[in-house]
Amino acid sequence: MTMYDVVNYVDCPRERQLEILSLRNREEIRQWMTHPEPISEEDHFRFVERLKEDGDRLYYAVYKDGALVGTYNLTRGEDGVWERGIIAAPETQGRGETLRWERQILSTLPGRGIKALSAKVKPDNLRSVRYHAKLGFREQSRDGEYIHYLLRLP
Ligand SMILES: CC(C)(COP(=O)(O)OP(=O)(O)OC[C@H]1O[C@@H](n2cnc3c(N)ncnc32)[C@H](O)[C@@H]1OP(=O)(O)O)[C@@H](O)C(=O)NCCC(=O)NCCS
């Protein structure tokens, strides 16, 4: 059953863009990002313009009953493996809600030629480490900064 609306950034109006940006810029979110600095409105809108021309980068906002519950992004890699990033709105975290909406998205990916997802997580992001294990991501390697995971899709 589809419970969540998954909307490409390029189809989100300005108001929704600003809500997405403000989620991304929250301190408790950006501390875990590869680029932890806040993103300006100007940079965000420029980024979304570029997404319109780029089939290798898919960015989605996820809504439940019209409320933003998170964002999800996929970047094409080699051999049907895409790197995925995820942010859950802090108010919705820790209740199994994120697992539900990510599983809804995962069920749509094999039909789109996506065979596996990679992810990288900072080892001190314990909530995220537990989350990836719960979803079935397997650790592939570690470097100085990240644990690298892979999830093979059925
Ligand atoms: C990492 C992240 C996406 C995980 O999302 P989340 O909302 O915390 O995850 P969920 O609540 O869906 O799932 C896990 C928790 O829900 C609990 N849970 C699972 N099913 C449940 C249910 N039916 N009812 C209640 N709780 C449930 C689990 O016990 C688990 O809790 P635990 O981690 O204490 O063991 C989120 O914390 C986040 O956005 N963090 C900030 C940004 C970030 O770090 N992104 C990832 C970068 S790699």
The overall pLDDT, averaged over residues, is: 97
Overall shape? globular
Helix proportion? 25-40%
Count of DSSP E strands?
A: 7
CATH level 1 name: Alpha Beta
Number of helices: 5
Unreliable residue runs? none
Small molecules held by this entry: coenzyme A
Quote the CATH topology.
Aminopeptidase
Radius of gyration: 15 Å
Query: Could you say how many structural domains there are in total?
Result: 1
What structural class results from the helix and strand content? alpha+beta
What is the first-to-last residue Cα distance?
19 Å
Task: Tell me the strand percentage band.
Answer: 25-35%
The secondary-structure element order is EHHHEEEHEHEE
Task: Describe this protein's structure.
The structure is a single chain. Helix content is 30%, strand content 31%. The chain has five helices and seven strands, in the order E-H-H-H-E-E-E-H-E-H-E-E. The protein has helices at 14-24, 27-30, 41-51, 97-106, 126-135; strands at 5-8, 57-64, 67-76, 81-88, 116-121, 138-142, 147-152. The chain is α+β, with helices and mostly antiparallel strands and 154 residues long. The longest helix has 11 residues, at 14-24. It has one domain: Gcn5-related N-acetyltransferase (GNAT) (Aminopeptidase, 3-Layer(aba) Sandwich), CATH 3.40.630. It has a seven-stranded mixed beta sheet, sandwiched between helices. Coenzyme A is lined by residues 29, 32, 86-88, 93-99, 121, 125, 127-128, 130-131, 134.
